[in-house]
Amino acid sequence: MKKLHVNVSVNNNDLEFLCNPEDTLLDVLRNDLNLTGTKEGCSTGDCGACSVILDKKLVCSCLVLAAEVDGSDIDTIEGMAEENKLHVLQEKFLEHAALQCGICTPGILIAAKSLLEKNQNPTEKEVRYWLAGNLCRCTGYDKIIRAVLDAAREMRKDYGPNYS
Amino acid sequence: MIFAKPNSEQEVVSLLKETQGITRILGGGTDVLVQMKSGVTDPDLIVDIKNIPGIREIKKVNGGYEIGAAVSGSEFNNYPGLKEFTPGIAEAFDLIGSSQIQGRCTLAGNICNASPAADTTPALSVSKCRVKIVGPNGLREDLVSNIPIGPGKNSLKKGEFIKSIIIPKRPLYSSDSYIRFTPRSEMDIAVVSAACFITLNQEKLIKELNISLGAVAPLVVNIKGINELVMNKNLNDNLISQISLICSSSCDPIDDKRGTIEFRSHVAGVLAKRSIILAHSRAGEKIEKIAR
Q1: What does the radius of gyration of chain B's CA atoms come to, in whole angstroms?
Q2: What ipTM was reported for this prediction?
Q3: What is the β-pairing status of strands B58-61 and B64-68?
């Protein structure tokens, strides 16, 4: 079968790949571009493990065809840290122990990043609703929510009386 | 499978018309990709419509709005003024899936996928929304409520696709609402849902009342005969109870693990009641706001 030629920018690197019409963006990221930080969970858009940012919008890469993304900008977990410096969210996830097995973590970090880009001061409720599409079977979510709220405070440089 | 991403409506129509076998439109893909993976469908052709000029745009038209077929839930709900214009459709659209799904899901997809539990179809039906359909014989319009014809089936003919959804202009003191029952507040599918559109006059007398119920029959149930009952009346408890009973008895739901026939019929009446009260108070606020 004739392969399709796709040009994209992934984490600000222009690159190109060949794919089959039925390949998903997740397939290409993991199998062809070796960006295995994005995880495959349910493959039906329910668990959020495969979350990436596609043209500034949070999406499940398992529900995007690779052929669709020609000309798009994609941000994956691999682009979150700058060189050796972790993103504030990553630091806060470590600090709050907001992960155990880690398979949901890249998706949750990407989802949280896209939230904080839109809303610098989310309420706990807003964080919980925004992350409702990211399933975690280890933590019970509480540490994740605390880490995101703490990262938001840090990014706003808001060290009020309740800061801990 | 062939993947195509044409740049014009005409090319989409020719591709759909000339391809033998199963053809599917790709807008947000949140239904079609899941169906492909689970083996429910195995398309011979996928047509991505997102390169068509205007297909991702929201336009103000004749006092209403025209929503391009590829506009996503988050684009709709972040568009200035739309939530205020139609809180009911905005609520229904916003309830679909997670933040990730909101970045992709579309009204046209929700309508054409024709799930009995679709959130936006009842909300679009009460406002008499229409779809613009492009096909081999040119452009035609139809009511949203005429598109689904059974679970998973729609009335579009070979070669046709939806290019936009029209939310018509509404009278001054009108509003709408959509509420649903789900065991979980996010990431769930309606067990029962109710949408209401109401128009009042300056004295708060009812001039129009439309109610549609979702997930209680193979198709959205558009409740008939209530306009005669409520015309030129004030909304009161007695009237609401009567309508609630009509709604409960109009249901033809399935019995499954998510809800029994009795439960679904009862809850449909309760949700109808709540959706009327909500839409009525929103329309009432408009009277007060304009009076000020």
Answers
A1: 19
A2: 0.93
A3: antiparallel
**Could A24 and B48 be called an inter-chain contact, meaning their C-beta atoms sit closer than 8 Å?**
no
Give the start-to-end residue ranges of the domains of chain B: 2-167, 174-291
Using the predicted structure, report yes or no on whether residue A160 has a pLDDT greater than 70: no
Contact residues, chain B to chain A, C-beta under 8 Å: 1-3, 5, 26, 29-30, 33-34, 36-38, 46, 48, 50, 72, 74, 97-101, 103-104, 186-187
pLDDT by residue (tens digit) across B32-87? Answer: 999 999 999 999 999 999 999 999 999 999 999 999 999 999 999 999 999 999 99
Supply angle C-alpha A28, B109, B42, rounded to 5. 55
* Maximum CA extent, chain B: 61
Residue A161: per-residue pLDDT:
63
CB contact under 8 A, B48 and A67: yes
Residue for token pair 């229409």: B130
Query: What fold, for A88-156?
Result: DNA polymerase; domain 1 (1.10.150)
**CATH class of segment(s) A4-79:** alpha beta
Q: Which fold has domain B174-291?
A: Enolase-like; domain 1 (3.30.390)
In the prediction, which pLDDT does A80 show? 97
Say yes or no: A133 contacts chain B, CB-CB below 8 A. Answer: yes
- Whole-number Å distance between alpha carbons of A121 and B232: 47
Same fold, A4-79 and A88-156: no
DSSP track, B85-105 = H-HHHHHHHHTSS-HHHHTT-
Cα distance from A66 to chain B (closest Cα, Å)? 10
For B186-236, write each residue's pLDDT tens digit.
Answer: 888 999 999 999 999 999 999 999 999 999 999 999 999 999 999 999 999
The H or E element that residue B25 is part of is: strand B23-26
For the segment B16-32, the average pLDDT, to the nearest whole number, is 97
State pTM to two decimals.
0.95
Class in CATH terms, B2-167: alpha beta
